[in-house]
Amino acid sequence: MEFFDLILNGKVVLENKIIQGEIGVKDGMIIYISPDKSDNQSKVRMKYDDCYIFPGLIDPHVHSLSNPNEGIKKTTRLAADGGFTTIFDMPFDYNSPITNKRALKEKIKVIEKEAFVDVGLWGTITKYGGYSQIKDLANLGVIGIKMSTFETDESRFPRIPDSGIVRAFREIKEIDLIAAFHAENDEIVKDLINEFKKGDKKYLGAHGETRPPYTETADILKLMEFAYWTDAKIHFVHVSHPRSIDLINYFKRQGLKVTAETCYQYLLLSDDDLKTKGPNAKVNPPLRDRRSRELMWDKLYKGEIDFITTDHAIWDVKNKEKGYKDIFTAPSGMPGLSIVASLVFSEGVLKSKISPIDYGKLMSTNIADVFGIKQKGRIKKGNDADFTIIDPNIEWVIQDELSPFNGKEVRGQVKKTILRGDVIYSNKKKIDNQNSGKYVTKNN
């Protein structure tokens, strides 16, 4: 008989099977996994026989500092409440984008002081010549380098010229990092927006009409060609259309090291929702038609999409509401960290679109593998004791005035979030354990 800090009982979701069993935790690590209940002793024993115990969820696509009213503390609190044990924060911070060592070191200090969950960081580059900073950012542990072919802001979120992208790819290849892209064609989108504005076409649906699917597919193709000839690893964020997935998998079969994520909104909403739910449903790329949404589920089921993310970004209500008069004035983005675990479980697992094992891979395992976070993503002996416990029988209603899912009934609720053996969220109770999170790096 052994003594542990924590023993968990329930439906344990392993990489390729589910067992009704128990997990033993000591010093923040998984020590044993067994299909049988033991007589081992522990400081704490949690019995969740009717619940699923997943590896701690990971969201690699979060914007905590695009809005100056948000930040690491607020965002990681939402993450813990929503079942996430790790997030990767995007580099387009309102005060100082993460393009150099100084900015990165300052952000790491904030994480070590304020984070409720573990946080990995993306780096980015300036519009011109920024590729020279990539090695310095890599030496400080960034998960990857995020870039864009669409310009939101020249200094904070620029469009990187093609020549700069190719140079960045060469640097990234040399240090075995990954390049991630927001892929939308800047020239076409802005030309269409100008045309619509001149015609006083500022209605809700105009957002999607000025960003048709080919503005995504065209730039994805271009970027994959650049990556093919430089042998760089490339990842596409928030892929919104099934044709994009077809193109990505075509290049993948040719040997390109390419991965793709989609966001929960492209699986659960359509372009009709922007018209009925208003600016809260405005995102970039925009929501697609219902047929495309269903095909995205099909791609997910077939294993053609690597994982699901949120692209979490919170904006003030007053700024979003500007979009009712002129959709082009409302910021793009929606919250997701506190609701996506339940939404994907309810609409995916409980409706048999994906299995619980698929859920664990799409929300944790595959992410850890793609970004080289070896201690996370699996319920496995020696890994961090990170768990997300979901009760499949609880029905509840989402209440979030900033979300297009406000008022939606879902089934499946996060009961506990556990980070390295410590409970950081429990049964709707926020646990005050700020500073429980750590800065996470590749191979950490």
TrEMBL record:
InterPro entries: Amidohydro-rel, DHOase/Allantoinase_Hydrolase, Metal-dep_hydrolase_composite, Metal_Hydrolase
One Pfam family, short name: Amidohydro_1
Domain Amidohydrolase-related: 52-423
Domain of life (superkingdom): Bacteria
Protein's recorded name: Dihydroorotase family protein
Organism of derivation: Virgibacillus byunsanensis
